[in-house]
Amino acid sequence: MTAAKLQDAAIVGLKVLNVAANIASKFFPSISIVSSLIESVLDVVEKKKSFKELQEDFKFIHNRLDELSKQSHETMENIIKETADQQFNEVRWEIKNQYKKYMELTEAPPEEIEKGSQKFVKGYQDGKGNQYLYTLYESVIGVPKVFSKPILQVYKQYSGTNRETMVQLTQELFSLFSIGCITMMAHAVLIGDDVEGRREEWEEKMKRVTSEMEKALEDFEEDLTLC
């Protein structure tokens, strides 16, 4: 395992995220910052940036996604307590934990990359791999019996008449999908999976996710108008 392959893994994940971020930035101003960061990184990839430079850029993107998640942390904890939906809590925790392990790999010194890659791949597969990301996706598009209720419906009910709460919750959901996709694509690159097929699949899925979030916000605003 070389730093070059790890760099490829990071770039593929960012390409998937870039598709969704470009769409989401139109109705989530705070995500426009993430979108700009990703585009700037991808624009200079062909200029043969070193892996160390890419690591620094990746940290900026990570920090911005983390900020989106932290904004709604307390609200999310309250939702989990009130709905008693422990399955969603598990999905949320596992996606974040998988991403944390991936970030540890991206920060590893060159001599630790081989060992770190093996540890990450094993941990990802032992932790049910991309199952949690698919479960989250199915809840957003309304597949029955994934969670007790579609997650955006739960957010809408919890937010009441507070649009800012709804915005924060959907941004946190976007952050979850983002880190989940980045981790999944990195794993695909490292094990030699069908990277292109996986990338195309999740670019389309992320378009669907952002479309559902946009629709949820539009419906929320229409309901407020009728109140």
Can you summarize this structure?
This is Rapunzel 2. With 227 residues, the protein is mainly alpha-helical.
Describe the structure in your own words.
This protein is mostly helical and 227 residues long. It has one domain. The protein is 82% helix and 0% strand. The chain contains 10 helices and no strands. The chain has helices at 3-24, 29-45, 51-70, 73-83, 86-106, 113-126, 131-141, 151-159, 163-191, 195-226. α3 packs antiparallel against α9 (163-191), α5 (86-106) packs antiparallel against α6 and α9 (163-191) packs antiparallel against α10 (195-226). The longest helix has 32 residues, at 195-226.
Topology (elements, then pairings):
Elements (H helix, E strand, L loop, with lengths): L2 H22 L4 H17 L5 H20 L2 H11 L2 H21 L6 H14 L4 H11 L9 H9 L3 H29 L3 H32 L1
Helix pairs in contact: 1-2, 1-9, 1-10, 2-3, 3-9, 5-6, 5-7, 5-9, 8-9, 9-10
Shape: globular
Helix content: over 70%
β-sheet strand percentage:
under 5%
Helix and strand element order: HHHHHHHHHH
What is the β-strand count?
0
N-end to C-end Cα span? 58 Å
Structural class: mainly alpha
Major beta-sheet overview: none
Number of domains: 1
Number of helical regions: 10
The chain-level mean pLDDT equals 80
The unreliable regions are none
Rounded to an integer, what's the Rg over CA atoms?
A: 18 Å
Protein name: Rapunzel 2
Coiled coil: 192-223
InterPro entries: SE-CTX-like
Keywords: Coiled coil
